[in-house]
Design brief:
The structure is a single chain. By secondary structure, the chain is an alpha/beta fold. It has helices at about 5-30, 70-80, 85-90, 95-100, 125-140, 145-150, 175-180, 185-195, 225-240, 250-255, 265, 285-290, 295-310, and strands spanning about 105, 110-115, 155-160, 165-170, 205-210, 245-250, 270-275, 275-280. It has two domains: about 5-115, no CATH class; about 125-310, Uracil-DNA Glycosylase, subunit E. It is about 45% helix and about 10% strand.
């Protein structure tokens, strides 16, 4: 069946307009709140003038960082020329931000890779069922010889499968290995206090770790252990599709965001992981050793509460 040229033109315009709206939404998440409007200017060949980013206005309580007019102008010029990536780089965005905004990242060979989105969402009952299946698979895992040999049991995760917020830690300690639940020791008690102070309850969030077995002596997981176990955490997030993720400590942050940046550089900003907004802060175990870090963590939690509308 031949589609009339006018219909083809309309479909292409609708596709491009949708692309522009998506890009504007991404810009908003990285702090751009307005784009200057100029009469008669068009974007990527669509029939609509450059829309104000107010059309994707932030929800109540969402944190929007300030942005400079000059940076925004560079981004607009990039959009108008059809080269958003160039516009973003000219505006001074860092490499990772450009990748998140344009929806692309580069593979090791330099070829572009699309940022993967979450699959279609499931009902709560379906999420519970899928998590139960995955938990059984984790309990049978033997990929890491040392961890499988030394563990009392695997530590899968706990909480509400429909939670808006997931906390991701590093790995189980002795108490977690004994009880089979993440964050039940001293660090877990401090995390409970942080959650309560943030006007939430432990049963309302979901808590998991990057690895599901206790590394002997509470050492950091090795690169190979992270590589073996990380797909389980990825699948947990796919099933739950949380609106927000809070990375507790550098191990979780670096693995989730695929970065080598320090906690100090990553915190106090929202990052992107598939469909989730990611906040990075210090691990509760670090706070037990360094009480002075409690204030920065509380600042991070206040930022998270504001974004969540709490």
């Amino acid at each position: 069946m031949n589609i009339p040229k006018e219909d083809n033109k309309t479909l292409e315009q609708e596709r491009l307009a949708k692309l522009v709206r998506q890009r504007l939404g991404n810009l908003r998440q990285f702090g751009v709140t307005h784009l200057p409007r100029s009469t008669g200017q068009f974007v990527l060949g669509t029939s609509d003038p450059i829309p104000s980013i107010d059309s994707a206005a932030p929800a109540a309580g969402e944190v929007i960082a300030p942005t400079s007019e000059s940076s925004t102008s560079e981004e607009v010029r990039g959009l108008q020329s059809g080269n958003q990536e160039r516009g973003l780089r000219n505006a001074g965005h860092r490499e990772g931000e450009v990748a998140a905004l344009t929806g692309e990242v580069s593979a090791k060979n330099g070829s572009p890779l699309k940022v993967e989105a979450y699959p279609e969402s499931m009902e709560i009952s379906g999420r519970r069922r899928e998590l139960d299946i995955l938990s059984r698979q984790v309990s049978e895992c033997q990929k890491c010889d040392e961890l499988a040999r030394c563990r009392t049991q695997t530590v899968f995760g706990v909480g509400n499968p429909g939670a808006r917020l997931c906390f991701i830690g590093e790995g189980p300690g002795a108490d977690e290995d004994r009880q089979g639940e993440p964050f039940v020791g001293a660090a877990g008690q401090l995390l409970n206090k942080i959650i309560t102070a943030s006007k939430m309850r432990r049963e309302d969030v979901y808590i998991l770790n990057t690895v599901k077995c206790r590394p002997p002596g509470n050492r950091n997981p090795s690169d190979q252990e992270l590589e073996n176990c990380w797909p389980f955490a990825v699948r947990q997030l796919e099933i739950m599709q949380p609106e927000f993720i809070c990375c507790l400590g550098s191990v979780a942050a670096r693995k989730l965001l695929n970065t080598k940046s320090s906690i100090g550089r990553l915190r106090q900003n929202f990052h992107q992981y598939r469909g989730s907004r990611v906040l990075v802060t210090y691990h509760p175990a670090y706070l037990l050793r360094n009480p002075s870090a409690k204030k920065p963590v509380w600042d991070d939690m206040k930022m998270l509460m504001q974004a969540m509308g709490i």
